[in-house]
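Quick log. Single chain, no ligands specified.
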Amino acid sequence: MLELRFNAIKPNGQLITGTLSADTFAEGKKKVQALIAKNQFKLKSIEKKSTYIYKIRKGSEAPLKGEQKAFSKEEVTNALTKMGYQVVSVNKYLFEWNPKPPPQEVLSFVKISAELLEQKLPYSEIMTLLVNDIENKTLRETLKQINNDLKKGGDSEVVFMRYQSVFGKFTSYMLGLAAKSGNMTEIYKATAKFLERRMQFKKDLRSALITPFITLFVLFLAILFYVGYIFPETAKLFIKFNIPLPPMTAFTIQISDFLMNNTLLVTAFIFIPPIVFVRLIKTKKGKFIFDKYLLKVPIIGSLIHKTLIEVFCRVFYTLYTGSAESIDPIRIAAEAADNSYFEAQIKNVAIPQMIKRGAGITDSFEASGVFTDTAISRFHSGEETGTIKNTALQLANYYESETVFRLKNIIELIQVVIAMVIMIVMILLTLVSAETATISPKSPFVQ
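-> predicted structure:
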């Protein structure tokens, strides 16, 4: 996330300075312009905080090198000079690229923090240790900034939410909330569990869906290349000499002719639908429709649905403290599920029923239409006995066990199906090639 500083002039001529954060410079610029227009200020400049490499020395000591984030070269120079250093050089990074850290790195940070908190280590010491040990540059610099902001007395929730592009919205919220709560260790452990489950599910889902689709797509392209280019080079020699072709060879030649005569159409058919699909699901409405019907896909849809409920229940269990304060935990748990349809149904149906009509949790969840009968039944029992918090944890553990077991079986089944498809394709190609090899040109002396 970028940090921007703007300088503006009030209508009375007073110069003011402010800072804000944004994912991109363009987004930050829009925020600044909206703020300026709202308050009728006159914008003077916008500066982006960048990384500067400096080289300094003190007296006759050997020169030292380092990095520092600042809004300008002068800031770095002045700060180092005030510290008594002789500034040799200060240069801005020409190509500064800070990619989002891998999910494994974020998970590692949260898990280690949870373990150290359990050992009663002060949070400031934990941050210092991790800043020195973490190898990923983006995460290391982010933690350094967070640690500095917290030491200055910054609100932990605001500080962490500033870096949600690094951690993710839900993780940032949970870590910020943990520092303000009296149950920091438990929230860190729950966040680590959530991240671990989400990573594992995505890995398993990739094995179940994405990898097989890629395998089939590559196989499809290989068949097109064979049928459209390699096979005709041999088979068309027989056509040239008016030799009758066997049925499979003749049919393959017809397909080859169609492919070669309609190259643009075939290419468009292969590549345009996936591109259009990806573009559509990146829009808000497209993602909503995709997320809605994803839950209705046979076999896989049911697993994804139950995993969403598992995530919801796990987060709800962590944040829920009592019926009087259930709205925020429900809202945050819905966002954590990372499914726009599931989230919208809870926010637009369940929560309004609880607020406007005073409905209970069970009735509101049932009205949303995104909870299974099993989940509704368990929530109903928990609400009647006053153990809804523990009921949420039981549901989370139950659905975790079920989805892990069923997903493994599905992955094994899909792998068998893919192997069968590849085998069938190879047999067909072998038969066509073998049939072509049996063609015997007629002797010109045979009538």
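The chain has 18 helices and six strands.
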